[in-house]
Amino acid sequence: MIVVGGEALVDLVPDMSTVDGGLAPLLPRLGGGPYNVALTAGRLGRRTAFLSRVSTDAFGDALLARLHASRVDTSLVQRGDEPTTLAVVALDEQGGAAYSFYTEGTADRLVADPGPLPEGVTALSLGTLGMILEPGAGAYEAVLRRESRRGVLTMLDPNIRADLITDPDAYRARFASWLPDVRVLKLSVEEVGWLTRGSTRPDLATAIRPWLDAGVRAVVVTDGGDGISVLTGDGVVEVPSEPARVVDTIGAGDTVQGALLAWLTENDVRDPAVLDPREWREALRFAARAASVTVSRSGAEPPTAAELKD
Questions:
Q1: Fewer CB atoms near the end CB (10 Å): N or C, the chain?
Q2: What Rg do the C-alpha atoms of the chain give, in angstroms?
Q3: What are phi and psi of 303, to 5 degrees?
Q4: Chain mean pLDDT for the chain
């Protein structure tokens, strides 16, 4: 079983304005990076559980209902009467998304360490706000280290939200401390640049070498419409993006993470170092195809397994 840990929140996504010169109305969409990852893996047919703290407010009830509809196990979900985190989304002309977060005193950041995960868990995915906002970040970090030691396939998608990182140098140091316990690291090319204090178009082979030396087996890098690549100790494998009519990019990277989790667990991969270039191309193409469906829809709406077979 896959366990995905991190925040569940509500994205407030702009709709078409009905008033000339007026602000666009904001439509609530259920989301959060890890939440979208769990939805993706569940919809793609893999046994998946979500680990988080979810509000008992109406938004929280809706978040749980959507997990259930996507066949995601919620037995690890904690509940609290704190409010749900909100993210106000701004879209550019190409559908790219920027976020403003409202996280003070919200439920997801108060998640507690659940202790050892069930024996049937073979993969763990963490990331985004869950690895930034305390005290929850410490709880997820403890889970990462404990599950890595018992041989679970660990995946991390930092999904950098720089506006919420008050001390970038401290965050970079903490990120480096996670790497010995991470087997697959997924980032955008811009995030590679931010983490290495480099340009927005870094030389990937040079930038990620210390991460591989630290123990990461594979670094998956997304580059928007330019495709996905994976860098391992054996070299680089690249695949192009799938053609799509882009409505917005909300949840695209999360879909890549969830689809990779689904592919790796479907193929019983515990150590990604065993994959050859042909297998990596198959995995990345699967993830790219899943992401192409998500970007063709408003908000984070990952595909089902049946949709990818059409």
A1: C
A2: 18
A3: -80, 165
A4: 93
Of 55, 121, 86, 70, the closest CA to residue 270 belongs to 121
Q: Is the pLDDT of residue 237 over 90?
A: yes
Q: 250, 89 in Cβ contact below 8 A? A: yes
Sign of CA dihedral 13, 166, 59, 249: positive
Beta-strand relationship, 85-91 and 26-31: unpaired
Q: Determine the Cα–Cα distance for residues 225 and 98; give it in Å rounded to an integer.
A: 17
**How many Cβ atoms sit within 10 Å of the Cβ of residue 95?**
15
User: Can you tell me which residue has the tokens 């316990």?
Assistant: 181
Which residue, 163, 225, 153, is CA-closest to 183?
A: 153
If one compares 23 and 21, the residue with the highest pLDDT of the two is 23
Cα 37 to its chain centre, rounded Å, is: 5
CATH architecture entry for 2-305: 3-Layer(aba) Sandwich (3.40)
Q: Report d(CA 194, CA 273) in Å as an integer.
A: 26
CA–CA distance, 14 with 28 (Å, rounded to integer):
9
- Global confidence as pTM: 0.93
pLDDT value of position 94: 65
- d(CA 171, CA 151) in angstroms, rounded, equals 26
pLDDT tens, residue by residue, 77-100: 999 999 999 989 887 766 667 788
